[in-house]
Amino acid sequence: MKATAAVCEAAGRPLRFREVEVAEPRATEVLVRVTASGICHTDISIMQGKIPFGLPGVVGHEGAGVVESVGSGVTTVRPGDKVLLVSPSCGLCQPCLTGHPALCAVPALRWGGRRLDGTAVLTMDGEPVAARFLGQSSFSTYALVEERTVLKAPGDISDDVLAPFGCGVVTGAGAVLNVLKPQPNQSVVVLGAGAVGMSAIMAATLTPAARLIAVDMVPERLALAEELGATDTINGAETDDLTAAIKDATGGGANVIVETTASTKVLRSALPALARGGAMGLIGAPAAGEQVSLPVVQLIMGAMRIEGIVMGDGTAPFLQALMRLHRDGRFPVDRLVRTYPFDRIEQAMADAESGKVIKPVLTFGA
Ligand SMILES: [Zn+2]
Ligand SMILES: [Zn+2]
After folding, report:
1. pLDDT attached to residue 365
2. What are the DSSP calls for 193-261, one per residue?
């Protein structure tokens, strides 16, 4: 099967549209015709060489599409089904078996670039191209993925809105609903009002938390955060003391802080604003090796938690619940999305990088 993919040939180089050959589905695999793919900062980091991945390679990990064909052992989807592509998992390791597939202990499923047996999923001019990026490589008109990486989706969610559920949306919403779980009348502070932060805010409106505070430096984003349910906003560009601003807005300290900015400077400023018994979830990843020193005594005496969160610790039932909430009008992901035709991928990336657009989504015309 031939496909057109946006190939990253080397770090820092512009993407090139190339014809690639997609392998035939094996027993447990599903060939998906990609109809939409969100752009996430992890894709951009790979292309900039900040995160290692085999190159030439095809990234993209917020795909949605239609099942084209399935291997002989596939039981959960059929050709013609609309599907969301999700984080890959093996189904057999300890995290997978205990309900945490986002923590699957087989990293080669996410970063290996090939099947686990080393065979290529994509080739170009007869040579292997790294694919299966985060289980997907959705910057391509077709993606060959494992059955566990597809989730049947309701037909009435438009593809461009569906696509980001697989990473940005589940990451922000899951951090709040699965991990940090704000309690009645608590305060939730979301650092960074990008796609992950906005998803965290929308999720927090579904909890008994009383105050939802969005922190960002872009006034338009703060305005949208308010429309989506934030009760207060802090413009980080207008305050020189973020710690005091958060304490002020929360009446003394934040019960829950969701860190999505990937800035250790922001993290350092927010940490002292955590209330006793409070929890901070770390989602935005700074450069590898970056460190932050901890006020250990305050953390102990205040019984505070700091925890890293991957993909919102999401599961298939959780994603199904989010999709249902969206259809019921209680989780308006559509407010975050702006679409670009696939051939405008460079523009979409630039708009993601500059922060002009919250969630750029590529659409693939038939
Ligand atoms: Zn992502
Ligand atoms: Zn696993």
Report:
1. 81
2. -SHHHHHHHHHHTTSS-SEEEEEES-HHHHHHHHHTT-SEEEEGGG-S-HHHHHHHHHTS-EEEEEE-S
